[in-house]
Every structure is written in structure tokens, then in C-alpha cells.
Write a structure and sequence with these properties.
Structural class: mainly beta
Distance between the termini: 45 Å
Number of domains: 1
Largest sheet: 16 strands, mixed
Number of helices: 3
């Protein structure tokens, strides 16, 4: 087995990273057919200025979180999280379809002692594992549904913070993620090159937010 950071970094350049860099920084209008959430779903609209760059449709219950992210010039990412009773993530299955129609996937399993991952694309697969420092979580900068899940799983009171080992599904590496409940209705998720700030409802839902470095803003629309 290979080191997880090396493994994810190598595979991400095939699966995710080049597409995210090109797609999310070149906004185009959103196709109409991805703007209508199904019953029981909510959505986040991610914008840069007045341009929509991604739409995330998601649903959640006590055991799982499922999300579909549509980038506005073609690529689509879908993931499903298996949740523990404390809202932490025990497993994630992610698939990505690029603009040419090619697909690849990442499966990651989280335990307190070990994180294991498997990557598959083009009929081939590879496995990796590592021992996390403290608690661990998947992370995807464009997914505010996942950011919401991380904040809820942290169970922080006002003024508290928590450090996690983040498996960055979009960047293809691992990093130390700090979750900080700096205000009664706000929280931040930060690492060396990423900072998300989210506004929270009294029940802990993300109602809006922004990606500080990319100047993305996000708006939540409730299920219809």
C-alpha cells in the first residue's frame, strides 16, 4: 500500500484537480435542468460575483448524506457519506464524470486508528492507508453540504475549536483542518490554502457562506 497523500495527489490530477481549476474559475450560465431540486432535497448555489459556478443538490437523513455537484461547464460529482450517530463520517463513496464522459471514483473508510482509500478509473484500482492524527474527515471545498456536516459533527460551543485530519477529495491530499465556532451563528473551516466561513441557523444548518480565497459566495435554498 502507498502513502495516502501521495496516492491521492497522483490520482487527483487525473480525476479532479485539473477540472476544478478550469471549471470553477471560468463561470458560465447554469443550465436550467440542474436548477430544480427533487422533493426532499435542498440546494446550495455557489457564485463568483454574479456568475453561478456550481450547484449542489443534497439530501440527508440520520444515517447518510448524498450530494450531487454540477459545475457549470459540464463535470458532475456525486458522493454519499455514511454517518455515525454522532454525525461523524465513517465512509464516503465519490464518483466524478468529466466533460468527456469519463468516470472515476474514490472510496474512503474512516476509523479512529486508520483511514483506508481505494481509487478506480479506466478499469484499474489502487489502495492506500494511513494512521490519522486525531479525528479525520473527508473535505471538498466546493461542497457546503459537507462543510455543514463537519461543523455539526464537531459539536463546538461558542469560542471552541477543533483540529481534524482532512482527506481533501478535490485537492488530492491530506491537511490539518481547523473548525472554529467563532460566533454564535458563524463558524470557519480553515487550512493553509483554504478558508470557508459559514453562517448558521439556530438548528446548525448552513444558510450561507463564502470561500475566502476564491471569492465564492453560497446561498442555501430549502427543500421544496
Amino acid at each position: 500500500m502507498t502513502n495516502l497523500s501521495t496516492f491521492l495527489l497522483r490520482t487527483a490530477f487525473v480525476l479532479i484537480l485539473p477540472e476544478v481549476t478550469r471549471v470553477l474559475l471560468v463561470p458560465v450560465p447554469v443550465p436550467v435542468d440542474i436548477r430544480v431540486p427533487q422533493a426532499g432535497r435542498s440546494e446550495f448555489i455557489v457564485k463568483k460575483g454574479t456568475d453561478t459556478i456550481a450547484v449542489e443538490l443534497f439530501s440527508r437523513d440520520a444515517e447518510s448524506l448524498t450530494s450531487e455537484i454540477y459545475q457549470t461547464n459540464g463535470p458532475r460529482t456525486q458522493y454519499t457519506l455514511k454517518l455515525r450517530p454522532d454525525s461523524s463520517v465513517s465512509h464516503v463513496e465519490l464518483t466524478r464524470q468529466n466533460r468527456a464522459g469519463g468516470t472515476a471514483g474514490i472510496s474512503v473508510h474512516f476509523t479512529p486508528a486508520l483511514v483506508t482509500a481505494q481509487f478506480s478509473a479506466g478499469g484499474q484500482s489502487e489502495k492506500a492507508e494511513f494512521a490519522p492524527q486525531g479525528k479525520s474527515t473527508p473535505f471538498l471545498a466546493v461542497s457546503f453540504a459537507l462543510a455543514e456536516q463537519i461543523v455539526q459533527a464537531s459539536h463546538l460551543k461558542l469560542g471552541q475549536s477543533l483540529k481534524l485530519t482532512a482527506v481533501r477529495l478535490g485537492a488530492g491530499d491530506t491537511a490539518t483542518l481547523t473548525v472554529n465556532r467563532f460566533h454564535a451563528d458563524s463558524a470557519s473551516l480553515s487550512m493553509p490554502d483554504v478558508e470557508l466561513r459559514v453562517a448558521l441557523s439556530p438548528t446548525g444548518e448552513v444558510v450561507g457562506g463564502r470561500h475566502v480565497g476564491q471569492n465564492w459566495t453560497v446561498e442555501r435554498k430549502s427543500a421544496k
